[in-house]
Amino acid sequence: MMRLSALFISWGFFLVSCAGTQPLKQEHRPAPINPGWEIYIDIRDTLRDSGKTIDYDTLMQTYQAMVQTQYEIPHIDRLLVSLINKRNDNPRIDQMVLIFAAKAVGGSKFPVPDAYGIFEAILAKDDRLTQWVLAFVAEAIGDYPVDMPEGDKLVDLLETKLSMVVSASGPKKEYFGCHFLPPPKGEYIRSYIANIQSLAMRTSERNHYYLLVANGYAEVDIERALRRLQSNDITEKGEHPIALMKYIIQNADQILK
Fold first, then answer.
1. What does the pLDDT look like over 23-50, one tens digit per residue?
2. Whether 224 and 149 share a structural domain
3. Residue 253 confidence (pLDDT)
4. Which of 78, 75, 95, 77 is nearest to 87 (CA)?
5. Residue 178: inside a domain, yes or no?
6. 60, HSE (Cβ side, Cα atoms, 13 Å)
7. Within a domain: residue 30?
8. Torsion angle of alpha carbons 231, 234, 240, 241, nearest 10°?
């Protein structure tokens, strides 16, 4: 409460004030919010508004907000648990959710409450664990700058999960790519890849799409080239279907101008 200094006023001024002038009220302004709390609220609301799923852009923005700030984020453990439980229909993005949750712990500038429990929660997602995911979890455990009680037990659990994943892997398991490039946003390219019957060709075409993206080609241009090839019925070579994404990248100078 502000202290008011004594004022000397004339009796006449006092009478006028009493007759028609209301005393000024002190203005109360809320104290500024701690920047860490602001970040917490933004991330909390973003994750809450996304429902049970999370898209690629929201995942990347959430991760960057967690690791790029110079301020300590309160209750970051709650945010990470919420993130871990989000899903995505794209298996690679679904796995990336776990990867970036682990990276957020490993790259934190401040101690993360119950870091052990967060890593344990990640490793409990058996249906989403791959060698790719486990490699980043292992790296994050090693990078985390604070000693974790029973850290050895966490490493043992990691090795157990790795053995399970390796034994379950086989030639019939589809490969979705070990990279962080954005998936196609449009339905056209997603549908083209999903409707390829051969697992090997589907995997190859998906990889060639991402190779185009990695080389700087925009999705809209790739889609335009794909539509042009399909409208010209360049779909078969002898008795075998043409891999159109591979064809595009092999002829990019002519097709993608």
1. 434 445 445 568 999 999 999 999 999 9
2. no
3. 87
4. 95
5. no
6. 7
7. no
8. -40
Assess whether 89 and 164 both reside in one domain: yes
Residue from 91, 104, 110 nearest 139 by CA: 104
Is 14 within a domain? no
> In terms of domains, do 147 and 61 share one?
yes
Distance of CA 251 to the CA centre of its chain: 33
87: β partners: 53
Per the structure, the count of domains in the chain is: 2
75/106 same-domain check: yes
- pLDDT score, position 6: 35
Predicted TM-score of the model (pTM): 0.82
pLDDT of residue 87: 97
Q: Which residues of the chain have pLDDT under 70?
A: 1-33, 170-172, 233-241
Among 137, 168, 199, where does a domain finish? 168
Which pLDDT score, from 0 to 100, does residue 9 have? 34
Give the list of residues 6+ apart from residue 79 with CB closer than 8 angstroms, or none: 40, 43, 44, 47, 62, 66, 73
**Residue showing tokens 């957020």:** 104
The full DSSP string for 109-149 is: SSPPTTHHHHHHHHHT-GGG--HHHHHHHHHHHHH-SSPPT
pLDDT value for 174: 84
Q: Please, is 51 exposed, middle or buried when counting C-beta atoms within 10 Å of its C-beta (0-12, 13-18, 19+)?
A: exposed
Residue-range definition of the domain harbouring residue 244 = 187-255
The last residue of one of the domains, among 139, 168, 197, is 168
Residue 28, CA distances (Å) to 1, 5, 21, 34, 228 in order? 10, 19, 21, 18, 65
Same domain? For 163 and 42 the reply is yes
Q: What is the pLDDT of residue 232?
A: 79
